[in-house]
Each structure stands twice: as structure tokens, then as C-alpha cells.
Amino acid sequence: MERCDAYRHFAAQCVELARHTDTAYDRSVLLEMALLWSRLAEIAAKAAMARGSVEPASLVVDQP
Q1: Which range of residues forms the domain containing residue 51?
Q2: Phi, psi of 22 (to 5 degrees)
Q3: Is the Cβ–Cβ distance between 10 and 38 less than 8 Å?
Q4: What was the pLDDT predicted at 62?
Q5: Which residue, among 32, 61, 44, has the nearest Cα to 1 in the 3D structure?
Q6: Scanning 4, 13, 21, 23, which has the fewest C-beta atoms within 10 Å of its C-beta?
Q7: 60 by DSSP, 3-state: which?
Q8: How many domains does the structure of the chain reveal?
Q9: Is residue 64 part of a domain?
Q10: Rounded to an integer, what distance in angstroms lies between the CA atom of residue 41 and that of residue 61?
């Protein structure tokens, strides 16, 4: 699994956890974590593309 894919997976997990949390504070923390994982995925995808190891389509990042 590419790093960018792993980071996207972590972002999705944070969003899923946020859906099931009870407090607004916990939900906001998890959604912020998801956003940061998504940004990291984008950076990793751009770096991989610069190295020539990834197709440009992998730059698509789902935002939570």
C-alpha cells in the first residue's frame, strides 16, 4: 500500500469514529485529525508523483 493510500485510510477511519462518538469535542478532534491525514495524503501523493512512482490520478483526495 502506498503511503498516500494509508493516510487516506487513516482519514476515513477518523471520520467513521467521529460519526459514532458521543461528544461534540471528540467529534471535532477526530474530524480535524481526518483533515490533517487527508492533507498528508495529498503531500505524499505529490511527492510520489515527483519521484515518478505514482500516476497523477492518485492526487485525488477525499475530504471529510
Answers
A1: 3-59
A2: -90, -30
A3: no
A4: 54
A5: 44
A6: 23
A7: coil
A8: 1
A9: no
A10: 7
